Amino acid sequence: MGDQKQAPLNGASNGTSIPPPKHGRRSGRGSRCGCCCLLKFLCTVIFTVAMLIGLFILIVWLIFRPINRVKLHVTDVVLTQFNHTDNILRFNLAANISIRNPNKKIGIHYDRIEAKAFYVDQRFGYQALTPFYQGHKNTSVLNVVFKGQQPLTLQGEDLTQFNQEKTSGLYSIALELSMRIRFKVGKVKTVRFRPKMECDDLKIPLNKSPVAGSDNKCELKF
Q1: 5 pLDDT higher than 60
Q2: What is the pLDDT of residue 175?
Q3: Sheet architecture: strand order including 88-101
Q4: DSSP state, residue 56
Q5: 213: CB partners within 8 A, 6+ apart
Protein backbone atom coordinates (compact mmCIF):
# COMPACT_ATOMS: atom_id res chain seq x y z
CA MET A 1 0.00 0.00 0.00
CA GLY A 2 2.77 2.41 0.90
CA ASP A 3 4.62 1.62 -2.32
CA GLN A 4 1.90 3.07 -4.66
CA LYS A 5 3.41 5.40 -7.23
CA GLN A 6 1.90 8.78 -8.01
CA ALA A 7 0.69 9.15 -11.59
CA PRO A 8 3.15 11.22 -13.57
CA LEU A 9 2.03 14.74 -14.55
CA ASN A 10 1.69 16.08 -18.11
CA GLY A 11 1.27 12.57 -19.47
CA ALA A 12 5.01 11.89 -19.13
CA SER A 13 4.59 8.25 -18.20
CA ASN A 14 7.31 7.04 -20.57
CA GLY A 15 9.70 9.91 -20.11
CA THR A 16 8.65 11.82 -23.19
CA SER A 17 7.12 15.32 -22.94
CA ILE A 18 3.98 16.47 -24.79
CA PRO A 19 4.76 19.34 -27.12
CA PRO A 20 2.87 22.58 -26.46
CA PRO A 21 -0.15 23.24 -28.67
CA LYS A 22 0.54 25.16 -31.82
CA HIS A 23 -1.06 28.58 -32.07
CA GLY A 24 -3.06 29.02 -35.27
CA ARG A 25 -3.21 32.16 -37.37
CA ARG A 26 -6.97 32.46 -37.69
CA SER A 27 -6.92 36.14 -36.75
CA GLY A 28 -4.84 36.97 -39.82
CA ARG A 29 -7.22 35.20 -42.16
CA GLY A 30 -10.15 37.01 -40.48
CA SER A 31 -8.51 40.39 -41.05
CA ARG A 32 -7.95 39.64 -44.72
CA CYS A 33 -11.56 38.50 -45.06
CA GLY A 34 -12.81 41.70 -43.39
CA CYS A 35 -10.75 43.86 -45.75
CA CYS A 36 -12.06 41.98 -48.78
CA CYS A 37 -15.66 42.33 -47.58
CA LEU A 38 -15.21 46.06 -46.98
CA LEU A 39 -13.63 46.54 -50.40
CA LYS A 40 -16.46 44.61 -52.05
CA PHE A 41 -19.05 46.71 -50.20
CA LEU A 42 -17.37 49.95 -51.26
CA CYS A 43 -17.23 48.80 -54.89
CA THR A 44 -20.94 47.94 -54.76
CA VAL A 45 -21.80 51.37 -53.35
CA ILE A 46 -19.68 53.17 -55.95
CA PHE A 47 -21.22 51.13 -58.77
CA THR A 48 -24.75 51.82 -57.51
CA VAL A 49 -24.11 55.56 -57.20
CA ALA A 50 -22.59 55.63 -60.69
CA MET A 51 -25.64 53.84 -62.11
CA LEU A 52 -28.03 56.28 -60.42
CA ILE A 53 -26.06 59.28 -61.68
CA GLY A 54 -26.04 57.82 -65.19
CA LEU A 55 -29.79 57.20 -65.05
CA PHE A 56 -30.38 60.73 -63.80
CA ILE A 57 -28.31 62.23 -66.63
CA LEU A 58 -30.15 60.07 -69.16
CA ILE A 59 -33.56 61.17 -67.89
CA VAL A 60 -32.63 64.85 -67.90
CA TRP A 61 -31.22 64.54 -71.42
CA LEU A 62 -34.34 62.79 -72.67
CA ILE A 63 -36.62 65.37 -71.10
CA PHE A 64 -34.82 68.54 -72.05
CA ARG A 65 -33.36 67.86 -75.47
CA PRO A 66 -35.16 70.16 -77.94
CA ILE A 67 -37.43 67.60 -79.61
CA ASN A 68 -38.77 66.27 -76.29
CA ARG A 69 -38.93 69.41 -74.19
CA VAL A 70 -42.02 69.82 -72.02
CA LYS A 71 -44.18 72.55 -73.59
CA LEU A 72 -46.35 74.99 -71.66
CA HIS A 73 -48.44 77.90 -72.92
CA VAL A 74 -51.58 79.87 -72.18
CA THR A 75 -54.28 78.74 -74.58
CA ASP A 76 -56.91 81.34 -73.68
CA VAL A 77 -57.54 83.96 -71.01
CA VAL A 78 -60.54 86.07 -69.90
CA LEU A 79 -60.46 89.28 -67.83
CA THR A 80 -63.85 90.51 -66.57
CA GLN A 81 -62.75 92.85 -63.76
CA PHE A 82 -59.61 94.92 -63.19
CA ASN A 83 -60.34 98.01 -61.10
CA HIS A 84 -57.82 99.92 -58.99
CA THR A 85 -59.03 102.44 -56.40
CA ASP A 86 -57.56 103.53 -53.04
CA ASN A 87 -54.57 101.23 -53.59
CA ILE A 88 -56.86 98.19 -53.80
CA LEU A 89 -56.99 96.07 -56.96
CA ARG A 90 -60.23 94.19 -57.62
CA PHE A 91 -59.88 91.53 -60.26
CA ASN A 92 -61.45 88.53 -61.98
CA LEU A 93 -59.11 86.65 -64.32
CA ALA A 94 -59.43 83.14 -65.74
CA ALA A 95 -56.92 81.29 -67.90
CA ASN A 96 -56.33 77.86 -69.40
CA ILE A 97 -52.73 76.66 -69.39
CA SER A 98 -51.72 73.74 -71.59
CA ILE A 99 -48.88 71.37 -70.56
CA ARG A 100 -47.61 68.96 -73.20
CA ASN A 101 -45.40 65.95 -72.40
CA PRO A 102 -44.11 64.73 -75.79
CA ASN A 103 -41.92 61.92 -74.41
CA LYS A 104 -42.71 58.33 -75.26
CA LYS A 105 -41.36 56.61 -72.14
CA ILE A 106 -41.23 59.32 -69.47
CA GLY A 107 -44.11 60.33 -67.21
CA ILE A 108 -44.23 63.38 -64.96
CA HIS A 109 -45.53 63.68 -61.39
CA TYR A 110 -46.69 67.23 -60.64
CA ASP A 111 -46.51 67.09 -56.84
CA ARG A 112 -47.15 70.79 -56.31
CA ILE A 113 -48.43 73.54 -58.61
CA GLU A 114 -48.88 77.18 -57.64
CA ALA A 115 -50.36 79.65 -60.10
CA LYS A 116 -49.60 83.36 -59.65
CA ALA A 117 -50.64 86.54 -61.44
CA PHE A 118 -48.59 89.76 -61.52
CA TYR A 119 -49.17 93.37 -62.53
CA VAL A 120 -46.17 95.75 -62.77
CA ASP A 121 -44.09 93.09 -60.99
CA GLN A 122 -46.47 92.93 -58.02
CA ARG A 123 -48.33 89.73 -57.28
CA PHE A 124 -52.08 90.11 -56.97
CA GLY A 125 -53.41 86.58 -57.60
CA TYR A 126 -52.60 83.12 -56.22
CA GLN A 127 -54.12 79.67 -56.60
CA ALA A 128 -52.87 76.25 -55.48
CA LEU A 129 -53.80 73.63 -58.09
CA THR A 130 -54.46 69.93 -57.58
CA PRO A 131 -51.40 67.65 -58.01
CA PHE A 132 -51.59 65.10 -60.82
CA TYR A 133 -49.62 62.58 -62.89
CA GLN A 134 -49.10 63.15 -66.61
CA GLY A 135 -48.49 60.10 -68.74
CA HIS A 136 -46.47 59.63 -71.92
CA LYS A 137 -47.26 61.80 -74.96
CA ASN A 138 -50.07 63.52 -73.11
CA THR A 139 -51.52 67.04 -72.96
CA SER A 140 -53.07 68.39 -69.75
CA VAL A 141 -55.01 71.66 -69.42
CA LEU A 142 -54.99 73.56 -66.13
CA ASN A 143 -57.94 75.84 -65.36
CA VAL A 144 -56.74 78.81 -63.31
CA VAL A 145 -59.01 81.42 -61.74
CA PHE A 146 -57.90 84.56 -59.90
CA LYS A 147 -60.76 86.43 -58.27
CA GLY A 148 -60.89 88.86 -55.35
CA GLN A 149 -59.12 91.96 -54.15
CA GLN A 150 -55.54 92.71 -53.14
CA PRO A 151 -53.67 95.76 -51.81
CA LEU A 152 -51.61 97.11 -54.70
CA THR A 153 -49.72 100.40 -54.59
CA LEU A 154 -49.25 102.15 -57.92
CA GLN A 155 -47.06 105.25 -58.13
CA GLY A 156 -45.15 107.16 -60.78
CA GLU A 157 -44.64 105.19 -63.98
CA ASP A 158 -46.72 102.26 -62.70
CA LEU A 159 -49.72 104.50 -62.12
CA THR A 160 -49.22 106.16 -65.50
CA GLN A 161 -49.15 102.75 -67.16
CA PHE A 162 -52.35 101.65 -65.42
CA ASN A 163 -54.20 104.79 -66.48
CA GLN A 164 -53.06 104.35 -70.08
CA GLU A 165 -54.12 100.71 -70.12
CA LYS A 166 -57.42 101.59 -68.48
CA THR A 167 -58.10 103.94 -71.37
CA SER A 168 -57.14 101.37 -74.00
CA GLY A 169 -58.85 98.48 -72.19
CA LEU A 170 -55.78 96.29 -72.72
CA TYR A 171 -53.76 95.27 -69.64
CA SER A 172 -50.22 93.88 -69.39
CA ILE A 173 -50.43 90.93 -66.98
CA ALA A 174 -47.87 88.20 -66.26
CA LEU A 175 -48.71 84.63 -65.26
CA GLU A 176 -46.42 82.18 -63.52
CA LEU A 177 -46.54 78.51 -62.53
CA SER A 178 -44.24 77.37 -59.72
CA MET A 179 -43.98 73.58 -59.70
CA ARG A 180 -42.41 70.65 -57.91
CA ILE A 181 -42.13 67.70 -60.28
CA ARG A 182 -40.60 64.24 -60.54
CA PHE A 183 -39.88 62.31 -63.72
CA LYS A 184 -40.76 58.62 -64.00
CA VAL A 185 -39.13 56.05 -66.27
CA GLY A 186 -40.64 52.60 -65.78
CA LYS A 187 -40.71 52.16 -62.00
CA VAL A 188 -37.85 54.59 -61.34
CA LYS A 189 -38.62 58.12 -60.11
CA THR A 190 -36.17 60.98 -59.97
CA VAL A 191 -35.68 63.51 -57.21
CA ARG A 192 -37.89 66.60 -57.21
CA PHE A 193 -37.20 69.56 -59.48
CA ARG A 194 -38.60 73.07 -59.07
CA PRO A 195 -39.20 74.56 -62.52
CA LYS A 196 -41.14 77.74 -63.26
CA MET A 197 -43.28 78.65 -66.22
CA GLU A 198 -43.28 82.39 -66.88
CA CYS A 199 -45.64 84.10 -69.32
CA ASP A 200 -44.60 87.73 -69.21
CA ASP A 201 -46.46 90.76 -70.49
CA LEU A 202 -49.62 89.10 -71.78
CA LYS A 203 -51.87 91.71 -73.39
CA ILE A 204 -55.33 90.91 -72.02
CA PRO A 205 -58.43 92.93 -72.98
CA LEU A 206 -61.10 93.74 -70.41
CA ASN A 207 -64.60 92.31 -70.88
CA LYS A 208 -63.84 90.68 -74.22
CA SER A 209 -64.23 87.15 -75.51
CA PRO A 210 -61.46 84.69 -74.61
CA VAL A 211 -58.17 85.50 -76.31
CA ALA A 212 -55.44 83.03 -77.13
CA GLY A 213 -52.10 83.38 -75.42
CA SER A 214 -48.85 83.63 -77.35
CA ASP A 215 -46.55 80.56 -77.21
CA ASN A 216 -43.36 82.57 -77.45
CA LYS A 217 -44.23 84.58 -74.33
CA CYS A 218 -44.05 81.53 -72.04
CA GLU A 219 -40.70 80.19 -70.84
CA LEU A 220 -39.86 77.15 -68.75
CA LYS A 221 -37.00 77.75 -66.30
CA PHE A 222 -35.17 75.35 -63.96
Answers
A1: no
A2: 94
A3: 71-85, 88-101, 138-151
A4: H
A5: 73, 74, 75, 76, 77, 95, 199, 202
190-202 per-residue burial string, b: 16 or more CB within 10 A, e: under 16: beeeeeebbbeeb
Q: How many CB atoms lie within 10 A of CB 141?
A: 11
Q: CB of 120 within 8 A of CB of 161?
A: yes
R_g over Cα of the chain: 37
Alpha helices for 109-200 (secondary structure H): 156-168
Residue 127 scores a pLDDT above 90: yes
Taking only the tens place, the pLDDT of each residue in 66-115 is: 446 788 888 889 999 999 999 999 999 999 999 999 888 889 999 999 99
pTM for this predicted structure: 0.69
Distance, CA of 149 to CA of 88 (rounded, Å) = 7
